Amino acid sequence: MRRRYLPKSSRLAGNKAFKTVLARKLRFSNELLTLYLAENKCGRPRLGLSVGKSLGTSVQRNRFKRLLREVFRQTQDQVPAGFDYVLMLSKKRGNLESGKLSYKQLKDAFIGLVADAKKKIEKQ
């Protein structure tokens, strides 16, 4: 069986790429996630993740990153192409400390943010 993953061409890499997206200051947030986005020239959506050390041990942080990458991979058809996205987890939620965030919770939060972003992009 072939493994499914988010290819490197769909990921943001390097500090400069992250700073470019953050400098655009187009931000949307909810109780779980904060989404920053900026247009790119490659014509496909790319994802960058930022999960701080305050969110748990490395095992917990890596689990969150795996879940977020999978959410992005599964919902790419709902995400506007031609944008770079930086996702950050918010520590406001108690589930983060216990590591009990589910895929469904993250997916719902992400899709809500993308819907808000689509509305904002269409207005411009």
Protein described:
The chain has a four-stranded mixed sheet with strand order 1-2-4-3, with helices on both faces. α2 crosses α4 (103-123). It has helices at residues 15-24, 58-74, 95-98, 103-123, and strands at 27-29, 33-39, 46-50, 83-89. It has four helices and four strands, in the order αβββαβαα. It is of the alpha+beta class and 124 residues long. The mean pLDDT is 87. 42% of the residues lie in helices and 18% in strands. A hairpin with a 3-residue loop joins β1 and β2. The protein has a single domain, classed as Ribosomal Protein S5, domain 2, CATH 3.30.230.10.
Properties at a glance:
124 residues, alpha+beta, Ribosomal Protein S5, domain 2, four-stranded mixed sheet
Offer a quick outline of the entry.
This protein has 124 residues and is an alpha+beta fold.
Gyration radius over CA:
14 Å
How many individual β-strands?
A: 4
Mean pLDDT across every amino acid position: 87
Write down the overall geometry. globular
SS field, number of helical segments: 4
Q: Which architecture name does CATH use?
A: 2-Layer Sandwich
> Strand portion, in percent?
15-25%
